[in-house]
Amino acid sequence: MSDKEKKYYKQDWHPENAGDEYAVRVVKANSSSNYEPQKYKSKEPTVEDLVEGVLSNNRTMVAKTITLIESNSEKHHQKANEILARLIDHSGNSIRIGITGVPGAGKSTLIEALGLYLIEKGHKVAVLAVDPSSTITKGSILGDKTRMEKLSKEENAFIRPSPSSGTLGGVTRKTRETITVCEAAGFDVILIETVGVGQSEVTVRSMVDFFMLINIAGAGDELQGIKKGVIELSDALIINKADGDNETRANIAKADFTNALHYLKPATKGWQTKAFTCSAISGKGIDEIWKVISKFVQLTKTNGVFEERRKDQLIEWTFSMIENELKERFYHHQLVKEKIPQLQKEILNGNKLPTQVVEELLTIYFNKNQ
Ligand SMILES: Nc1nc2c(ncn2[C@@H]2O[C@H](COP(=O)(O)OP(=O)(O)OP(=O)(O)O)[C@@H](O)[C@H]2O)c(=O)[nH]1
Ligand SMILES: [Mg+2]
Q1: Whose CA is nearest to atom 10 of ligand 1?
Q2: What is the DSSP letter of 36?
Q3: Ligand nearest to the CA of 283
Q4: What secondary structure letter does DSSP report for 28?
């Protein structure tokens, strides 16, 4: 250790006039520093390294494991499965929360506020940004990282903004696996942000225990533009930005939503979905949101709905993996890949019907696999 380093280490904590014997014991691995044990620096960490790293909450290893899981390469696939099999017994001990809402509603700001509040209460928080439209809104994803600046500096927070990688890739496909990794790493609250487009809400709902919709009070009809179906997936409706001049409008919106909720089917058996106001910027209402979530967890754990939903989700996960797996193998099949461009041309110039092409490709695929 150089003199300079010694001086640095000693500044923090050692008794005055202490010798080198103290400096040697200063290991920063438990802090949020960049220090990594030497073995983690090798280019390709082994399954053992990654499992150990995740279980000891080494954030670099958590991130590397997620990257491996999200990879489309067949080589990584096998390794990822081995790791997941080892981690699964350590997972499940968290509250999984899905957060959706129109772009700009304040989802990320609210996640940061809630995340900081939870860390203060002793929780470990992982944030996953699921954004199937991120090929268009890449800027928004990058923006999220900066908007969660305070949270990302916290030792007990882990933020993973994942861009989607097209129709066959896509981040939602691996979000369940990512949740498993985060739970095995000891994160006990998992917050999943999704932009309210297309199927993303339904997908995220099928992965979480509690789902909330973030709204903002706008001019005119508050319910305009929000699909009834999305409200019916939600366990809470949050009207954000209830601050400054907007507070009155937010309260009116809350009354409107409360009214509408009487006519809609609740998302969770035995639970009445309600509307709340909050300000992610001032922090007003954040504690109430957590109280609602805690009450929900307590109630659903008592009446068995929590466990039941998790079991259903496990089955759903299994079948969605089968679908993905089949799709992936089909499109990666060498002969299928080679045939597709030609068959596409034949459809377009009227030589073949789409149904014939489907038949032909499936025959190629299954013959090869028999
Ligand atoms: N006044 C006020 N502004 C807020 C509040 N929450 C968020 N904002 C602002 O609203 C803008 C959008 O916030 P984000 O948290 O990025 O919203 P988002 O829903 O995550 O947006 P996307 O990820 O792009 O869909 C930012 O400029 C925030 O500062 C709030 O409670 N009050
Ligand atoms: Mg956001």
Answers
A1: 106
A2: -
A3: 1
A4: G
**Distance (Å, whole) CA 325 – CA 349:** 32
**CA 179/CA 188 separation, integer angstroms:** 10
Taking CA atoms only, the protein residue closest to ligand 1 atom 14 is: 106
Domain 95-314 fold: Rossmann fold (3.40.50)
Question: Cβ(101) to ligand 1 under 6 A?
Answer: yes
Task: Determine the Cα–Cα distance for residues 316 and 205; give it in Å rounded to an integer.
Answer: 12
Neighbours of ion ligand 2 (CB under 5 A): 107-108, 144
Q: What is the pLDDT of residue 138?
A: 45
Q: What are phi and psi of 275, to 5 degrees?
A: -105, 145
User: Is any atom of ligand 1 closer than 6 Å to the C-beta of 136?
Assistant: no
Q: Which helix (H) or strand (E) holds 307?
A: helix 305-332
Residue nearest to atom 8 of ligand 1 (CA): 106
Q: Does domain 45-90 have CATH number 1.20.5.170?
A: yes
The token duo for 156 is 């007990």
What tens digit of pLDDT does each residue of 103-116 get? 888 999 999 999 99
Q: Which residues contact 188 (CB under 8 A, 6 or more apart)?
A: 93, 94, 95, 123, 124
Task: State the CB neighbour count (10 A cutoff) for residue 342.
Answer: 9
Nearest ligand by distance to the CA of 106: 1
240 lines ligand 1 (CB under 6 A): yes
Q: List pLDDT tens digits, range 109-168.
A: 999 999 999 999 999 999 998 654 444 444 444 444 456 889 989 999 999 876 654 433
Write down how long the chain is. Answer: 370
* Cβ 279 under 6 angstroms from ligand 1: yes
